Please model this.
Amino acid sequence: MSMDFTDKGINTKVTHAGENPDTIHGSVGVPIYQTSTFKFQDADHGARLFGGEEKGYIYTRIGNPTTNTFEEAVALLEHGYGGIATASGMAAVASVYMTYLGNGIHMVGTDAVYGSSRMIIENDFSRFGVESTFVDTADLEKVRQAMQPNTKLLYIETPANPTIKLTDISACAEIAHSHGALLVVDNTFMSPILQNPLELGADVVLHSITKYINGHTDVVGGVIITKTAEEFDKIKSMVNGLGGIMDPHQSWLVLRGMRTLSLRVQRGEENARTLAAYLETHPKIEWVRYPGLASHPQHELATRQMKGFGSMISFEVKGGIANGKTVLNNLKIPQLAVSLGGYESLIQHPASMTHANIPEADRKAAGITDGLIRFAVGTEDVEDLQADLAQALALI
Ligand code: LCS
Model:
């Protein structure tokens, strides 16, 4: 059996959590249990498993040893009760919404969340009578004003995609709980290495593991971690019912990627700090938003609630997107693609790409300007990235 790593440091946890689930052969690598179903010892055994009197595997949609190894490991990293792996990040978001929202129930959310996390509420859940208010959650007064007697969920993303605005997690937990609502945090941009919302009062945390946790730009997936057994059971039951689970082979790939999470996050952050400082002094740059810069309006909050500043930078080139396109089209190392959190640098234009599905007026109100460029900094040599930015900016 795996030893207990609860009191160990984050690097030891990420390296070892959940190891050795194979008690028969003792394989060091986690086996892929590529099976849809599990054989019972006899009829009474099957009945006991279904009755919950005995723990064991029944059917892969309900649970699988490879997936469970990943779920336990990530729950340990987030200081949670348990983890629930899902087919994609959006399957995690939608499953949490399905668990807590319903006809006549209201939610409050960050206005600049990942486009689909907002649009499925405003376009789809609204058809079932779900009410919502999306506000700038960086402004706590706006959060307080948006809360209603029927608000059951406060849903925040910090740093927000793609504005890199921060939301105070502890303050939001207090606001949510004083209204009888739960606080859910999308922690994708920070990963469990740099921010642990459950420690700051959140009830549920989720990730698109497509990003930092898997980190290799080859798997789409998600995970939900709860603080308590009660919330775990509610969400687990919903994920079982909806069926958007993580496949065993997918779980194995994610576990493999996750073992280097802290190394990748550390290196990406070092690079991002250097590049954000470089861009800030560049004469052709209008503005740069990075939590590690003293110029970030919430730099103080960043140092309080985050364990590092991450590797996501947004910036605008002087002359807006017309000049921004020259940069996007001429960079040689960062690839022009959506997604983030992989080992490689990626760059994209939110207003026409990741956030194009948000109506223009809402996008602008949320601070997603037409000129905003989002830069996901990878683990390359920073000198090469800086030289590449310099040559692309020189073409303007
Ligand atoms: N939450 C955040 C913060 C995200 O950035 C994304 C995807 C999701 C949830 C959804 O996860 P998925 O289903 O894709 O695994 N963000 C993307 C982005 O910024 N570019 O491409 C996808």
